[in-house]
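Notebook entry, structure prediction.
Reason for the run: the old model in the group folder had no record of what sequence produced it. Starting over properly, with the input documented here first.
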Amino acid sequence: MTRLVAIDLPASDRLRAEVERAWQAGDAVLPLDQRMNPAIRRKLAEALGADELISEHGRELLPSTGFPLVPLQSGDALVIATSGSTGTPKGVVHTHTSIAAHARMAAERLALTSLDHWWLCIPAAHIGGFGVLSRAMLLGSRVSFAHHVDDASLTRARASGASHTSVVPTLLSRYSFAEWKLVLVGAARSGSLPPNAISTYGLTETCGGVVYNGIALRGVDVRLTNGRIFVRTPSLARTYRHAPLVLVDGWFDTGDVGTFDGPQQGDMLGDGVLRVEGRGDDLIITGGNKVWPHIVEQRLREHPLVADVVVRGVPDHEWGSLVAAWIVPTAKDRPPTLEVLRAHVKETLAAYCAPQRITLTESIPRSALGKPLMSELS
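New structure, fully documented this time:
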């Protein structure tokens, strides 16, 4: 019987060793996010049905909670906790086959070899970070680890020979990665990236990025149905821990909306490029006009008085929704006004894209992967 081993350790050589040990024993692993409170990490492990917990304090058998779970089976390798778009934690179950398929497809596209030196600086408890580790394990590549990113840690990583890394867009905007051979950037807009960076699009369910710079990896199919993105890939998860993975003829509904630029085959991505607009439920419809938040955010970030921003729709009885922006000013003593920012947006975008409401804040709370935590914004 396949057991689930929760690994409550920071990204390190020991984490890698514990994953290898569990896999050799035929067990699946659940890496736990070190940014979470220890009590919450343990509760998550129990909720996802972990049989054993490995931490700095040793190994501990966990009691059965009685939660109804989809049983693990032979070949299952990984359970990744993800909140998706609902905020409710889910356990995505990947197999050795899906993990190996993703590593193979990525290695082919990126010409990866055992000589590469990866620097893992994002949480291994998320699919982007675990993907760095699993690819290195399957290819025999070296991995070094960082518990935080700053100029000093970047300098040390390069001095040790690190050449490849994977980051979230906020890191790329704060630090220079110009000297790196390859930088993978999850959920970034490829048009704004330096030459050595690649924008990846994928989900936990697809084992990470399956579309690089808008072009699907070989073996991955992408189609649009009424603007909604569906994918079919050999790297797809087997199931969720609490419910089956819903597929239609092998296609997975990502919940994202996009368009194709260039040649395509009907509703399938051919030689064109996939443009991801965002989550379908993020689309703002104000006065009958459609506004994608990321487009407005990109324009607002170009204003010198804006250090960070997130844009969402808020209900309004007259317009349906209002375009609202939460702004982090570059200087507290010179905050931008609504009028100034509206004028700035209207210089390049339609007037209905301009924010109708702004809220000044000291910071934008974000998840470990850089996603805004809207529930924490007032």
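Summary: The mean pLDDT is 90.
The old model has been moved to the deprecated folder.
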